[in-house]
Amino acid sequence: MRKTRNAAITATGVATALVLLTACGGERSGGDAAPEDARSTVAAAEAGAAQDSGARPTAAGTLSVWRSEALGPVVTDSAGFTLYRFDDDTASPPRSTCEGDCATTWPPVLAADAEAAEGMDPALVGTVARSDGTRQLTLDGWPLYRYVKDTRPRQTNGQGVGGTWFAAAPDGGKAGPDGAGGAGDGGGAGGAKGGDTGALPPLSVREDAELGDIVRDAKGRTLYRFTEDTDWPMTSACTGACLEKWKPATMLDKDALDDVEGIDRKDVIAFERPDGTRQLTIDCWPLYWFTGDQEPGDTAGQGVGGTWFAVRADGTLAK
After folding, report:
1. What is the C-alpha to C-alpha distance for residues 38 and 44, in angstroms, rounded to an integer?
2. How do residues 144-182 score in pLDDT, each as one tens digit?
3. Cβ-based neighbours of 104, under 8 Å, separated by 6 or more
4. Residue 9 to residue 235: CA distance in whole angstroms
5. Which of left, alpha, beta for 114 (phi over 0: left; psi -120 to 50: alpha)?
6. Apex 244 CA angle, 146 and 318, nearest 5
7. DSSP secondary-structure letter at 37?
8. Which single residue of 30, 95, 106, 269 has CA 20 to 30 Å from 212?
């Protein structure tokens, strides 16, 4: 197994990419060509960052709450459009992971003129700084978004999309029959397969009865590799429609890396996707979770298309 260094391909220059050359390319032949590959990768990252400006955030205004027959109390903006929260974000500390193409589909709600709805605890309303410097509205720490397929007020077409997007309840939880502990939180029903997911490390290894030791995320979701990806140069072949079923695992922040269990943290680095999001990799292989896994510990993605496989702690395929 190659030892990697904790670095990410970003648009900060060729120097970072050259660090990754050492990290991920130590066993590659044809080393003279690798720096050019690194420069190409950085150029692609810069192009992706430049495209982020296409996202158009929306203003919040005075919030309101309406009672959906299916979902119960739902938070809307001043125009009556449903506001959503994203499971891949974090509330403590508040952090938005929806950038680039994601932010085009899910426009961030701007916080400048936001006010709590009548009866809502004003202390729950806050802001978080996005990578472009704008301030996004948060509710109990969760960044809020609108959904482009909601074309009229009080629509909830974004509810449950990808198993990660949910209308926001007035307390910042997920609107729906199960409330804040509903689908997508990785709690409750997953205990039988994935263990107690309420206090999992941000990245860890569990023993699967059929596959042996495999990697899971903080929500107990099995992480997978795509055999059409490459580890050097790091590339993801999962784009477009592929991303509807296979979601890039979000890179951990520095503090979370300290809590990784069962995996050499030096093997955990970031891959910057063309849309600017930072994808988690192990030994330079991009990792994903599968929307077809309904509960923590599920492995329904194993072997799909003969190209998707759970991954071991050293980045190799579990098969």
Report:
1. 10
2. 999 999 999 999 999 988 889 999 999 999 998 644 333
3. 54, 55, 56, 148
4. 11
5. beta
6. 135
7. H
8. 269
